[in-house]
Protein backbone atom coordinates (compact mmCIF):
# COMPACT_ATOMS: atom_id res chain seq x y z
CA UNK A 1 0.00 0.00 0.00
CA UNK A 2 1.55 3.30 -1.06
CA UNK A 3 1.66 6.43 1.05
CA UNK A 4 -1.25 8.12 -0.73
CA UNK A 5 -3.52 5.15 -0.06
CA UNK A 6 -2.42 5.02 3.58
CA UNK A 7 -3.25 8.69 4.06
CA UNK A 8 -6.63 8.21 2.40
CA UNK A 9 -7.46 5.32 4.72
CA UNK A 10 -6.36 7.32 7.77
CA UNK A 11 -8.31 10.36 6.60
CA UNK A 12 -11.49 8.32 6.18
CA UNK A 13 -11.18 6.41 9.46
CA UNK A 14 -9.72 9.07 11.77
CA UNK A 15 -9.81 12.61 10.37
CA UNK A 16 -8.22 14.23 13.44
CA UNK A 17 -5.29 11.80 13.43
CA UNK A 18 -4.75 12.36 9.72
CA UNK A 19 -4.56 16.11 10.16
CA UNK A 20 -2.16 15.65 13.06
CA UNK A 21 0.18 13.43 11.00
CA UNK A 22 0.12 15.85 8.05
CA UNK A 23 0.82 18.75 10.41
CA UNK A 24 3.70 16.82 11.99
CA UNK A 25 5.22 16.01 8.59
CA UNK A 26 4.94 19.66 7.55
CA UNK A 27 6.59 20.72 10.80
CA UNK A 28 9.44 18.24 10.26
CA UNK A 29 9.94 19.57 6.74
CA UNK A 30 10.04 23.19 7.90
CA UNK A 31 12.28 22.51 10.87
CA UNK A 32 12.22 24.54 14.08
CA UNK A 33 11.41 28.21 13.70
CA UNK A 34 11.66 30.92 16.34
CA UNK A 35 10.61 34.54 15.99
CA UNK A 36 12.87 37.25 17.37
CA UNK A 37 10.65 39.92 18.89
CA UNK A 38 11.76 43.44 19.80
CA UNK A 39 15.39 42.56 18.99
CA UNK A 40 15.44 40.22 22.01
CA UNK A 41 17.90 37.59 20.78
CA UNK A 42 18.49 36.05 24.23
CA UNK A 43 14.82 35.20 24.65
CA UNK A 44 14.68 33.73 21.14
CA UNK A 45 17.71 31.55 21.89
CA UNK A 46 16.16 30.21 25.09
CA UNK A 47 12.93 29.40 23.22
CA UNK A 48 14.96 27.66 20.50
CA UNK A 49 16.82 25.62 23.10
CA UNK A 50 13.53 24.60 24.76
CA UNK A 51 12.06 23.54 21.40
CA UNK A 52 15.19 21.56 20.54
CA UNK A 53 15.04 19.73 23.87
CA UNK A 54 11.38 18.85 23.48
CA UNK A 55 11.78 17.59 19.90
CA UNK A 56 14.84 15.45 20.71
CA UNK A 57 17.19 17.19 18.29
CA UNK A 58 19.55 18.17 21.09
CA UNK A 59 19.94 14.52 22.13
CA UNK A 60 20.68 13.51 18.53
CA UNK A 61 23.37 16.19 18.23
CA UNK A 62 25.01 15.14 21.50
CA UNK A 63 25.03 11.46 20.48
CA UNK A 64 26.67 12.23 17.15
CA UNK A 65 30.44 12.05 17.56
CA UNK A 66 32.39 14.48 15.38
CA UNK A 67 35.80 14.15 17.01
CA UNK A 68 38.29 11.30 17.18
CA UNK A 69 38.01 8.90 20.11
CA UNK A 70 41.20 7.22 21.29
CA UNK A 71 41.29 3.41 21.38
CA UNK A 72 41.76 3.40 25.15
CA UNK A 73 38.67 5.58 25.53
CA UNK A 74 36.73 3.25 23.22
CA UNK A 75 37.71 0.29 25.41
CA UNK A 76 36.58 2.09 28.55
CA UNK A 77 33.23 3.02 26.96
CA UNK A 78 32.74 -0.53 25.67
CA UNK A 79 33.47 -1.96 29.13
CA UNK A 80 30.99 0.44 30.77
CA UNK A 81 28.31 -0.44 28.20
CA UNK A 82 28.91 -4.16 28.75
CA UNK A 83 28.67 -3.76 32.53
CA UNK A 84 25.44 -1.77 32.15
CA UNK A 85 24.02 -4.46 29.86
CA UNK A 86 24.96 -7.29 32.27
CA UNK A 87 23.49 -5.38 35.22
CA UNK A 88 20.24 -4.91 33.34
CA UNK A 89 20.08 -8.58 32.38
CA UNK A 90 20.72 -9.65 35.99
CA UNK A 91 18.02 -7.31 37.23
CA UNK A 92 15.58 -8.62 34.61
CA UNK A 93 16.40 -12.23 35.59
CA UNK A 94 15.79 -11.51 39.29
CA UNK A 95 12.54 -9.69 38.54
CA UNK A 96 11.37 -12.56 36.37
CA UNK A 97 12.13 -15.07 39.14
CA UNK A 98 10.14 -13.00 41.64
CA UNK A 99 7.18 -12.71 39.29
CA UNK A 100 7.21 -16.43 38.51
CA UNK A 101 7.16 -17.19 42.25
CA UNK A 102 4.24 -14.83 42.80
CA UNK A 103 2.24 -16.28 39.94
CA UNK A 104 2.92 -19.93 40.68
CA UNK A 105 2.60 -19.86 44.49
CA UNK A 106 0.15 -17.03 44.98
CA UNK A 107 0.63 -13.72 46.75
CA UNK A 108 0.05 -14.95 50.27
CA UNK A 109 2.69 -17.73 50.16
CA UNK A 110 5.60 -15.58 48.93
CA UNK A 111 7.96 -14.47 51.67
CA UNK A 112 9.75 -11.25 50.80
CA UNK A 113 13.32 -10.89 52.14
From TrEMBL:
It holds the Pfam family Ribosomal_S21. One of its GO terms (cellular component) is ribonucleoprotein complex. InterPro entries: Ribosomal_bS21 (IPR001911). Keywords: Ribonucleoprotein, Ribosomal protein. Coiled coil: none annotated. Belongs to the bacterial ribosomal protein bS21 family. PANTHER family: RIBOSOMAL PROTEIN S21 FAMILY PROTEIN. This is Ribosomal protein S21 family protein.
Amino acid sequence: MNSVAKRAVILLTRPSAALHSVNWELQQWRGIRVKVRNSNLEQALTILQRKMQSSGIERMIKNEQTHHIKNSEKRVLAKKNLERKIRGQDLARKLKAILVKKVSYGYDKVVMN
